[in-house]
Amino acid sequence: MIIGTALSNHATKALLLGSGELGKELAIALQRYGVEVIAVDRYANAPAQHVAHRSHVVDMTDSEAIKKIIDLEQPDFIIPEIEAIATQALVDIEREGKSVVVPNARAIQLTMNREGIRALAAEKLNIPTSNYAFAETFSELKTAVENNIGYPCFIKPTMSSSGKGQSMVKTASQLEAAWDYAKSSGRVDTGKVIAEAKIDFDFEITLLAVRALNAHGVVETYYCEPIGHYQEHGDYRASWQPQAMSRSALKTAQDIAFKVTTEIGGLGLFGVELFVQGEQVWFSEISPRPHDTGMVTMVTQQQNEFDLHVRAILGLPVNTRLHTAGASVPLLSTLAATDVVYEGLDKALAVPDSEIRLFAKPEALVNRRMGVALAIADTVEAARKKAVTSAKSVGIRPA
Ligand SMILES: Nc1ncnc2c1ncn2[C@@H]1O[C@H](COP(=O)(O)OP(=O)(O)OP(=O)(O)O)[C@@H](O)[C@H]1O
Ligand SMILES: NCC(=O)N[C@@H]1O[C@H](COP(=O)([O-])[O-])[C@@H](O)[C@H]1O
Ligand SMILES: [Mg+2]
Fold this sequence. Notes:
Number of helices: 12
CATH class of the largest domain: Alpha Beta
Number of domains: 3
InterPro entries: ATP-grasp, ATP-grasp_carboxylate-amine, ATP_grasp_subdomain_1, PreATP-grasp_dom_sf, PurT, PurT/PurK_preATP-grasp, PurT_C, Rudment_hybrid_motif
Structural class: alpha+beta
Keywords: ATP-binding, Ligase, Magnesium, Metal-binding, Nucleotide-binding, Purine biosynthesis, Transferase
Binding site for Mg(2+): 273, 285
Largest sheet: 9 strands, antiparallel
CATH architecture of the largest domain: 2-Layer Sandwich
Bound molecules: adenosine-5'-triphosphate, glycinamide ribonucleotide, magnesium ion
Subunit structure: Homodimer.
Pathway: Purine metabolism; IMP biosynthesis via de novo pathway; N(2)-formyl-N(1)-(5-phospho-D-ribosyl)glycinamide from N(1)-(5-phospho-D-ribosyl)glycinamide (formate route): step 1/1
């Protein structure tokens, strides 16, 4: 077990609940500090399972199944990596006190459901968010949008990520299709959907905030340089760091991140999603874990978002310094197939200062993220161009 500076000969054990691309990098970062990694996901051969000590395949929305695995493995740390997890199991496990849930069970519960985090940010902390309403039936949704929210607005499942089940509605005639889509395509159907007024932002950012112990053993909040990103259908298509923004907007963004992460508590890295227009900043949502848009830090920071999460959890010092501008562009599959080949890696990697990371997911689906192109340059603009060129060179074809 690693405790601050003392490293015993009994390996510290971490169990990842979710083993996608973010989990894979977490597993690697954990192993660099000698931590034993157990990777759990809903399907076999998930990315983090390729590099973990052991893995298990279970329905992570089933409380009993999660408890059984945790009972078997007795991990020191449980690191949720995805939203769709039976969070009540984590609350019960935390109460037993044998494992640390990262950053804590309440954080996982609050953030996996848009209702929990909205209530906390908008109602308890009075942080600006888009105008919103929840609905359990189509007629409730229609009334809320017509009387309160207006058009254009976003309709989303309360439990989903990567834009699943989300649509932008411009007119009343599109509302029913958006309701049906939200009800049927979230990761879990909670029975409710959220309607959010559209915010006309100049740009949106992910502010990575790390709650870690400082040299005096006291929790301090550290911020990475803001990450700008561009999204289509609720999923990111490019991210870059640093996003240029005014000092005062950045200060407001950090203040919001501080308020929300302090309220949530625990140790670890958080991805705070914010919309910025002029000097105004709105809170959108938060991941109590590394963020997909933050994959850019694999080339821009000395300690990337995965290192930072792991170091914070283990009680080790962190440094959020940026060493260069950079960009990331995800590689999305255009086809569905169980066996795919990746063409054009030679061309992609011929782009100077670029890298390609393939996640080796066992199945490609249309728009599923299969890899990421990363690039650095003197400016964000140049890095973005390189990352786009590199990503475009990779073709995903049936084997
Ligand atoms: N109220 C809003 N106003 C303007 N744009 C929005 C709004 N809600 C969502 N969007 C756009 O859709 C994107 C995805 O929304 P959101 O983050 O809520 O979805 P998600 O499914 O949680 O995605 P992820 O898991 O990738 O963060 C946002 O980053 C933003 O570009
Ligand atoms: N925005 C959240 C996010 O990026 N999560 C990342 O995507 C994986 C799921 O991918 P899949 O849907 O292709 O299995 C998750 O396991 C996580 O790594
Ligand atoms: Mg989001």
